Amino acid sequence: MKMLLTILLVLLPATVLHAQGRGGAGHYRSDGFYVMLGAAHGPSFSSFFNYINNLYQVQPKEQLKDFGSNVAFQLGYISRFHRNFGIDVGISVYGLKSKGTFTNNDSLINVNRISHDLQYQVGIFTATVPLIFEFMPRQKIIPYVGIGISIFAERLDDFRDAALNSGILVSDAIRDTRTSVGGHFEAGVGYKINQRIWLDLRGRWHGGSGHLSTLENNLSDFAINQSVSQYMLGVDYFFR
């Protein structure tokens, strides 16, 4: 991750200088926005789920599953200061859930049955430097790649019900909000309907790490791995 951020910090000023050096040749500039819909997979909260499944000696059929995939929405603004370079800032949002009820098989813990309902929501703020392979005005298919910074604004709600051996039901809830920083790489292809409107197909892969608290282990933190994959389809609209 440190290498990714270092490459970005070197690439960003280099692209700006390159664009300034060639600006007099065509004075190319095009600003616009994009709206995209697709799917997101991750992050991995395996440190928590492994802890739960091992602590309560959960049977395989009852084990809590790690976060999977869900629908994601993405909105952003792109400023192309050169035909082949630009700055892209945006946000994508989605939510994930994991829920399960299982029998406690550890006789040392005074709990008969326990259930967890985890609800995770995140907004990923991104700043990206794309390299756009557009070489002529009439080119219809335009591939691109990019590298950038990802900021994860996360919220985790944990609802727990525990049935004690004495027959008493105990319910608890906690909400934890955190922010963490990582990086991402993207690759995509645009189809130019006309100069202003493009269809855009994109894949973006994030990396990073952070921590979140749950009701387990005296509210201590569990590591969360921001290995997030996003696959999006949408429309780009340029103002000119």
Q: Can you give a write-up of this model?
A:
By secondary structure, the chain is mostly beta strands. The protein has a single domain (2-238), classed as Porin (Beta Barrel), CATH 2.40.160.20. 15% of the residues lie in helices and 62% in strands. The chain contains two helices and nine strands; from the N terminus they run αβαββββββββ. The chain has helices at 2-26, 46-55, and strands at residues 30-41, 69-82, 85-103, 111-132, 141-164, 169-192, 197-213, 221-225, 228-238. The chain has an eight-stranded antiparallel beta barrel. A hairpin with a 7-residue loop joins β7 (197-213) and β8. It is elongated, with a radius of gyration of 23 Å. Mean pLDDT is 89; it is low at 2-26.
Map the helices and strands.
Blueprint lengths: L1 H25 L3 E12 L4 H10 L13 E14 L2 E19 L7 E22 L8 E24 L4 E24 L4 E17 L7 E5 L2 E11 L2
Antiparallel strand pairs: 1-2, 1-9, 2-3, 3-4, 4-5, 5-6, 6-7, 7-8, 7-9
